[in-house]
Amino acid sequence: MTVRRLTQTVRELKPFNQTEARSALSALKEMGAREAAIAAVLAEGGPLKDFLVGALSLSPYLKDIAAIRPQLLACALEEALEPQLEAALAGARDCWQPRMDGVTPTESEVMTALRDAKRQVSFLLALADLSGLLHARETTQWLTKLADAAVAAAMDHLLLASHHAGKLRLADPARPSDGSGLIVLGMGKLGAGELNYSSDIDIVVFFDPDSGILPDPAEATEVYGRMMRRLIRILQERTGDGYVFRTDLRLRPDPGSTPLAVPVEAALIYYEGRGQNWERAAYIKARPMAGDLKAGEAFLREITPFVFRKYLDYAAIADIHSIKRQIHAHKGHGVIAVKGHDVKLGRGGIREIEFFAQTQQLIAGGRVPAIRERRTEAALAALAQSRWITPEIAAELTEAYWFLRDVEHRIQMVRDEQSHRLPETEAELKRIAYMLGFADTATFSARLEDVLRRVERRYARLFEQEAKLSASEGNLVFTGQNDDPETLVTLSKLGFERPADMSRVIRTWHYGRYRATQSVEARERLTELMPELLSAFGASKRADEALLRFDGFLKALPAGIQLFSLLGNNPGLLSLLVMIMAAAPRLADIIAARPHVFDGMLDPGLMQEMPTRHYLSERLTTFLGGARHYEEVLDRLRIFTAEQRFLIGIRLLTGTISGVQAGRAFTDLADLVIEQALRAVLGEMAQAHGTYPGGRVAVLGMGKLGSYELTAGSDVDLILLYDYPEAVQESDGAKPLDAMRYFTRVTQRLIAALSAPTAEGIVFEVDLRLRPSGNKGPVATRINAFRRYQEEEAWTWEHMALTRARLVCGDESLMAEAGQVIADVLARPRDRQKTAADVSEMRALIEQEKPPRDLWDFKLIPGGLIDIEFIAQYLRLVAPSGAAGQDDEAAVSMSGTEAALRRNASGRLSPDDLETCVTALRLYTELSQIIRLCVEGAFDPKDAPAGLIERLCTAGDAPSLKLIEAEVKRLSKSVRSILQACLSQRSSPAAEE
User: How far is CA 788 from the centre of its chain?
Assistant: First the structure.
């Protein structure tokens, strides 16, 4: 612990005026007559004497305390600061305890002891703060410790007194609060450890009637109600010794109709069903600070889902901001001025900094536990660390916060008044300026105005979206039955080709004909949003189309207030939404059906953070952390998959990642989710049927899952492998199963976990047709059967599929064994001519049974994706023994198919042919990833959304679709020729060696 002394004073304080300076000096001389330490300072003179004269001339409160108790000042001069504070806090905390003679202090004695401690601590902190020995951060922490000690001591006294009176039966009278079930939460600045100098304290009290200390639990409300009234009296009644803290219990649930102490169960029911956003904001800072601390921590854990919701909560922004608007509506809070300005509630004040942090904590705290900080400074730092704000904003607001807290403290130190308003007169304003160390009011005013305006600017950018019924281009009025002529002109200027039709659509929204716009609040938010919304749609090509798609989106929404609040407070998000409406109807359908997928778009780091396997794994682990049972795990997997698939898609749509990167990300997401689903399924099986001793399970990914080429709409091809010791006949649970039934049940449950539709949708469609014997074979395959089938029965096309196989998850030893089986099978010598004939036959069969729709059917066109995949698979099958394995996970910059081409092309494809295949593969991948993301079903260039066409042209590096089509024709023709040459062994001279 740092030990400091008042003699280290570093800050000069100008006295209020000469009259007050003489009065303060006179008072100090009178004190010096009784206290030698004070006399010594006066005799010596110098900076310390000047400081004391200045401090007492500026603060009548400090002058009065020193005059009444000069020994406090003497001790402050003689002894180190921190030991005095610690001793005062210890005395306050222990004042309830029985004395050495066994006599328990009376309530009056407890009240006196607490007031003495308050006076000493307040006096010491004021001198230390004014002198610059303590930072405001430290001052607020010491004040909070005092409140903690006072409330905890009062609670212990009341519990012990009730125990002695026979009202309670304490488990341990020496520690009355432990196990009492009586919870005292500190709220607001008390909870955050940030009490101000003359602060009142906000507490809420809950009790558990079944804690075992009440003879009759039915009397709990009456017993604890009387106890709370006594608590308030102990803390806030003014006596000859002053008061401790003004105490407010109005933050409890529904304070107008509930007792001072509320049963825990009733509180939980209230918050779950009726809790409001302002209460959620209040509980961000809540902290158990007296009573049964363990029970308090348990209560906060219980209401965490209420405070920090599973989905990002955008409607909270406007709701919290409405509180701030109501505050601003009071006289004196509407403009920034120095004289009379409220540094807490006024514009640019302390509350705006707190709201700046708290609202973002409410929005994202459910998904980002790191930002759940009570203290404002820590919250700003955590938001910066999590990239919700920049470090510069965090530093600027933190500096402003502590400056304003200093100003607030000086206002309160003058006369110990709970005020946050600066004086109206120049003379009294000078007092505050001098207490802060400024030379004059002009310098102070300039600094304060600068801080207030910087805070207001930051706050306004985040929140203040005032209603606007006109845009810079002209009117935007959509009330009444008929079109407003000037509004039609405005719409036309904005870029809409059919302004009358668009006006009619928009009026439909305002009539409340959709569920999303039925509430008054939703329509008000939409009205505020309209200028920005229409300007953004107008800026996109074919604005009418985009607006009509947004209309369809609104029509499907179950509610709109969340969305409108989100868009109104996040302009960047509005641009993304317009892009979705202009380019990606499939994504628009997704967010209409499952609005929560939109949550992650609020993350400011979305476009900076690449969706790597590590990135996705960290977020999945966090998201599953609170799941308590099997069904909840599966629901969270569905929610997570839908949201992350959507966010990967957004990155692809905006060009932040390429099609190849998207394929890798979709695949990594699938891997991680399948792994967690398998883990959950095995755990559920163990509960129902026990574990299978020595049993092992592994999941083999096939097709695009195996080659890291999944798209937004892909299903997953899986094979479940298992093994078990021959000696073990059944599982070890209460309802044992033999091996075949046990591992079949595991597979069936895994399929259901991934593909069964629920309220949260599905994870993936699962395809098991690539397992041995296809649909005729068992759903789960034992490893020795898998080996035998691949070695003795599998067709060439099945070995082609095996070239893309990849072990996804499961038992490591079984994965290694399966990997070796695959490697052995693929390394077998083959008859090249027969293999080439089989591949040719397979390609011809596909071409006959599934002809391509058009040129944009990149998978099936001659020279399309299947041709390239067949080239890669054929080359792998005829590769010399000892060629590289079937997977190269280090090649994260390319797809599995490209990696396979590059590994096995040597001696079989010329460098030019290889590059042609790779170029075609990348173009097909880029275009098909975007198309699968944006539209459901076939792509028709004539009906494609304007934004999608623009995005495809960007991806294809061409000014028009016609030029992209020309390039596809050129490349596909070359690829088909390469496939034919390859299969006829004419690909290069090296093939004959």
Answer: 50
Looking at the DSSP assignment, which residues form a beta bridge with residue 781? 721
818 burial class (0-12, 13-18, 19+ CB within 10 angstroms)? buried
Question: In the chain, what are the helix, strand and coil shares in percent, each to the nearest 5?
Answer: 60, 5, 35
Nearest by Cα to 923 from 866, 884, 865, 876: 865
Comparing CA positions, the residue from 329, 331, 374, 326 lying closest to residue 354 is: 374
DSSP 423: P
User: Amino acid identity, residue 728?
Assistant: V
Degrees (nearest 5) of the Cα angle 891, 897, 901?
A: 90
CA 563 to CA 583: how far, in whole Å? 19
3-state SS class at 260 = coil
Cβ 888 vs Cβ 918: under 8 Å: no
pTM of this prediction? 0.62
Residue 325: band (very low, low, confident or very high) from pLDDT cuts 50, 70, 90:
very low
CA distance 790 to 797: 11
pLDDT: which is higher, 720 or 493: 720
Residues 185 and 297 sit within 8 Å (Cβ to Cβ): no
In b/e form, how buried is each residue of 221-252, taking b as 16+ CB within 10 angstroms? bebbeebbeebbebbeeeeeeebbbebbbebb
On the question of pLDDT at 881 being above 60, the answer is no
Question: What ranges in 416-542 are assigned the alpha helix state H?
Answer: 426-435, 441-462, 485-494, 499-510, 520-539
pLDDT digits (tens, 9 = 90+) for 494-518: 888 898 888 888 878 876 678 787 7
What's the one-letter identity of residue 661?
Answer: Q
Identity of the highest mean pLDDT range in 341-345, 885-889, 917-921: 917-921
Q: Please tell me the distance from the alpha carbon of residue 890 to that of residue 899, in angstroms, as a whole number.
A: 10
Query: Do residues 362 and 320 touch, judged by C-beta distance below 8 A?
Result: yes
In the predicted model, is pLDDT for residue 23 greater than 80? yes
Question: Average pLDDT of 25-30?
Answer: 96
SS3 807: strand
Closest C-alpha among 655, 647, 654, 668 to residue 600: 647
Q: How confident is the model at residue 716 (pLDDT cuts 50, 70, 90)?
A: very high
What is the mean pLDDT of the segment spanning 218-234? 94
What confidence score (pLDDT) does residue 60 get? 96
487, 503 contact by CB (below 8 A): yes
Is the CB of residue 61 less than 8 Å from the CB of residue 119? no
Angle among Cα 218, 220, 223 to the nearest 5 degrees reads: 125
Residue-level pLDDT at 318: 52
Per-residue pLDDT averaged across 83-98, rounded? 96
